[in-house]
Write the structure tokens for this entry.
Amino acid sequence: MAGPALLLAALLAAAVSSSSASFSAGLGSPGQPRRRVQVLCGSNWSLALQGQWMLEFYAPWCSACQQMELAWESFAKESEHLDITVGKVDVTQEPGLSGRFFVTTLPTIYHANNGVFRRYLGSRTLEEFQNYVLERKWEAVEPVAGWKSPSSIMMHGMAGLFHLSGWIRQIHSYLTGTLGIHVWISYAIFILATLLIGLFLGLILVLISDCFCPSKSRYRAETSEEAVTKDNVENAALEEPEEAAELSADDAEETADVKELSDEDAANSSADDSEEDLALGKESGEEEMEDLSEQPLADPETESSLRQRKSQVADNGL
């Protein structure tokens, strides 16, 4: 039992030592020569976030990149003494990584110090590369903004777009080269696919908005109803004083009419009363005259008194 266990332990130790040796050979360690140029790709680019790096973005067909290739190789040989790692990225093979660093010209060189990146804009000679590191000229260069940093969310999205463009280019090459489809037919296929994808994404966005935003529409409807109710209340409040004023004017007119009617009735009633009184007075006077005329004649004194009473009655009748 002890023999197999010791054999397994020995195999594991050999595997660990071999992996550590290969890693040290790739990145370099004290007492061992560094690898000349570290090739970075989409899977190991995060190595540039640790330590000090000089990173070149190039393309095999770029003449300027070919001219500085010897100087870059020589700079990589001196990297052990400069305590720096020299790397390179082939943009034709790593479109996503070139998009992450937003590479628009070739060659493009970046200096990185513990995840802080600066664009190198000096001359492309071995001496200038060495002086840039030894004299710490990179400290005078403004670092890349945070939102443009290769590790930012914005650059993650940019890397995805560049990777998608490379994937589309590969599909186009497959359609035109392998299948022999005409170039314009390939363009038409991509246009149709773009339209369909856009319609599908728009439908998804509409469904998401309907699922997550119904309360806002209800709130808006309730708000509009409340606004209409408030407007109605305000209009009613404005109309009430006008109606009250109209009613008061009508009441005043009715009161005036009633007063006039009452005055006319009173005047008519008083005139009628006075006419009735006059008629009654005349009738009473006539009755008294008849009574006096029916009485027998008396002495002259009596006749004079009767004449006086007749005159009085006549005066009262008038």
In short: Residues 256 and 262 are 10 Å apart (CA to CA). The first strand starts at residue 38 and ends at 39. Strands lie at 38-39, 52-58, 85-90, 108-113, 116-120.
